[in-house]
């Protein structure tokens, strides 16, 4: 049995950053994960530190979009009828939260959090010796039709002005010159310039975990079986051992709801599944490229060009149905030399999304010493260090700088 001040459960970007933030504030932290750090959702993402994302990913509400989604025709969204019963209530709440008025309200918190994300990552990247994994300069969205380019340019310019985010417009020739990997002409592109890209997201989390250990923190690879309150705090049962601490942080991403359910917390998490696959032997991109019309996304990674998908609503243990990935690969092959697939089977994992799009970072309402830190949705890789600083400040000073992240708002 080991003694620590705080046990952090989950060593993805969110849990590892939490452990570092608490350690920096003088806490003796035990970080637990059943796998090495950064091997799950925090491995499989697009690796963007999305400083440009002033708003979270809302649910489309336009009738034309809903009709397109209903017919499952895009690369961005897929769904399975048998997954609807378990997700219906969360989807309804997500729909309500996506109204323009609610989204604007949520954006007041979200835009502040993403704006400081680079500043919160920067000292960790430097201390972890991970500068080689980071590329600054943003990402691009390319357009094949004048109409879509003009409409998106107007919307992007208004968004950039309202939230103070960096935007660059490229004509087709400039795009071709700056991204020679593209093999066919485009009308133009938008480049969100503030955002950083990581060439190996799992490796960055592993570097953060190594930093935590180098600074004296303890990381243990164990599967957590149960969490129970004790007279003095919390007891965590792992295979063949028990750990105790006065406080515990649940940062287990999409698995968090299951871990706190026995304590009486019914957490609605919308699991938005995403897929990726690497390709080698083609021409590497200089930066992430998204093709607007096909909604395909390709990101240059250490492992090759990574083709990613949008969201799929599937049952938790449903077998993979990577139809979006097949479409994205086919689309990407029309504009670049992708090469051949590295993996036999695509990777897939779940974005842990709260129905109101804001993560939880705060105290659980019915237990002392129980802190909830999950539900970062589409931007957990971006926001890990930021919401960790917010949470760690609250745990050590009692001041909650962002009350909108409180679990109490969802009755948790
Ligand atoms: C396709 C895709 C693209 C994305 N692109 C981006 C992007 O570009 N930028 C961005 O900011 N975000 C992106 N995201 C979202 C981002 O990846 C997630 O929000 C983030 O990784 C969540 O981190 P986490 O630490 O909460 O969860 P995870 O990384 O899943 O970590 C949770 C950890 O808990 C551990 N765990 C769970 N249960 C137990 C247990 N019982 N015992 C022990 N350990 C346990 C798991 O092993 C895991 O390591 C993307 C997601 C996907 C799927």
From TrEMBL:
GO terms for molecular function: oxidoreductase activity. Its EC number is 1.4.99.6. Keywords: Oxidoreductase. GO terms for cellular component: cytoplasm. Residues 5-393 form the FAD dependent oxidoreductase domain. PANTHER family: GLYCINE OXIDASE, SARCOSINE DEHYDROGENASE-RELATED. This is D-amino-acid dehydrogenase (DadA-like protein). It comes from Ketogulonicigenium vulgare (strain WSH-001).
């Amino acid at each position: 049995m080991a003694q620590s001040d705080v046990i952090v459960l989950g060593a993805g970007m969110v849990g590892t950053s939490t452990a570092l933030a608490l350690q920096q504030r003088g806490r003796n932290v035990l970080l637990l994960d059943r796998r090495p750090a950064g091997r799950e959702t925090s491995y499989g993402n697009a690796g963007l530190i999305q400083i440009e994302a002033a708003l979270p990913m809302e649910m489309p509400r336009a009738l034309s979009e809903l009709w397109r989604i209903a017919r499952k025709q895009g690369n961005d969204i897929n769904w399975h009828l048998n997954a609807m019963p378990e997700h219906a209530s969360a989807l309804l709440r997500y729909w309500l939260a996506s109204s323009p008025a609610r989204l604007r309200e949520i954006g007041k918190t979200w835009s502040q959090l993403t704006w400081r994300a680079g500043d919160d990552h920067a000292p960790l990247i430097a201390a972890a010796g991970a500068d080689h994994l980071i590329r600054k300069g943003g990402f691009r969205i390319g357009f094949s039709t004048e109409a879509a380019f003009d409409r998106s340019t107007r919307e992007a310019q208004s968004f950039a002005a309202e939230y103070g985010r960096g935007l660059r417009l490229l004509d087709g020739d400039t795009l071709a010159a700056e991204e020679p990997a593209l093999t066919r002409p485009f009308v133009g592109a938008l480049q969100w310039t503030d955002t950083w890209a990581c060439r190996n997201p799992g490796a960055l989390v592993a570097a953060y975990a190594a930093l935590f250990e180098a600074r004296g923190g303890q990381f243990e690879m164990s599967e957590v079986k149960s969490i129970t309150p004790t007279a003095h705090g919390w007891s965590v049962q792992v295979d063949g051992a028990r750990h105790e601490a006065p406080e515990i942080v649940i940062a287990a991403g999409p698995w968090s709801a299951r871990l706190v359910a026995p304590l009486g917390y019914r957490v609605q998490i919308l699991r938005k599944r995403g897929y990726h696959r690497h390709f080698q032997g083609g021409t590497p991109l200089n930066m992430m490229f998204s093709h607007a019309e096909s909604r395909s996304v390709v990101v240059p990674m250490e492992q090759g060009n990574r083709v990613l998908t949008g969201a799929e609503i599937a049952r938790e243990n449903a077998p993979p149905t990577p139809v979006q990935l097949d479409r994205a690969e086919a689309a990407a092959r029309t504009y670049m030399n992708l090469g051949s697939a590295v993996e036999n089977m695509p990777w897939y994992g779940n974005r842990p999304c709260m129905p109101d799009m804001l993560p939880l970072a705060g105290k659980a309402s019915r237990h002392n010493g129980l802190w909830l830190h999950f539900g970062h949705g589409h931007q957990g890789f971006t926001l890990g260090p930021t919401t960790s600083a917010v949470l760690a400040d609250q745990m050590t000073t009692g001041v909650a700088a962002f009350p909108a992240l409180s679990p109490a708002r969802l009755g948790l």
